[in-house]
Amino acid sequence: MTDIFQQASSPSAGSSNQVLISICIPTYNFGAFIAETLASLERQDLSGAEIVVLDSASTDNTAEVVASFAARLPQLRYIRADEKRGIDRDMARVVAEAHGQFIWLFSADDVMHPGALAAVKSHLKEDYDILLCSHTNCDREMNFLSNHPVMRAEPGDVFNLSDGAARRDYFGRAITSEAFVSFMSGIVFKAETWRAVPLNERFVGSCWAHVARFFEIMKTQGMVICFLGGPLLDKRGENDSFLQNSIVDRWRLGIEGFQSISQEFFGVGSDECTNVTRVLRTEFPIQSFLALRFHLIRKKEFQEVKKLDTLFRRLHVTGSSGAGLQATVYRLLGLFPPFLYPLFRRVIHVTGLKKGIGKFLDLALRVR
Fold it and tell me: What CATH number belongs to 1-109?
């Protein structure tokens, strides 16, 4: 592969033994946010740590912002690419440039809590392949919204996924897809584990090539995951880099991506795939599909409606009993404005329609 980097430092002999943990930050045009991220790292105990920023040919002031921190942070290395190649390749390349025994991938717009790095370092063990932590959800201005759940586990719980039963138990504990190592700022992993398998070209462009890598390792070699709990960082919302085309396309990335990866490594109909679908149905509930469908109809974006309907069938209809009737009811409800949903729900409860399609309607009409 042609080296696309204009500047980079090569690891010195034995340097991987000198650096315990590398905080790796792939970024593109996040000059407005990365200062807050780097400031939160500057406040950490950086002994035994390095910070590696991979700038994927940003056209904003990212380079200048990072340079202002590099002047006072000897632990910081800045690497600039001469072209944008996508998050999957950026993650792979920034990890390849890291010297640490462990890697903490970190988003260029998230903020690390005080003492978070010290907490992570205190839990690093050779036996652990991944440390998994939680975060808060914030708005674009980093105002707190909520704590984000990950899985049904206690801080410090360790899961040895060396056999199918243990892995199925782990997948069954998942509350959100972050239990499936989706959120890069929420995982710290052993560099040796990451390098056990190469980048899977089939999933490059999916935005989930790192998940495919870890799923492959889970399946073929086993994996030990320690759940740290948290939260250890604040996640900035309303700043999704993947919303370039449409909301429907963004949803498709998550739904089709995770289903395809779980089917590839664990097989259609496996317990792992079943739990992935269960979690996705929670993250993309029927009522959200209905609200978006009505919004798209109101804006007369009928091609987007067709795409949304296909996605709905894939997630909520395929494999469900009464699938055809549910799909029909979903399309009909999508014609009505959401403010009428409480009235529809009231009718269901008054008439005692509690089974079958009634249960589906009750779920579909819940308004958050």
Answer: 3.90.550.10
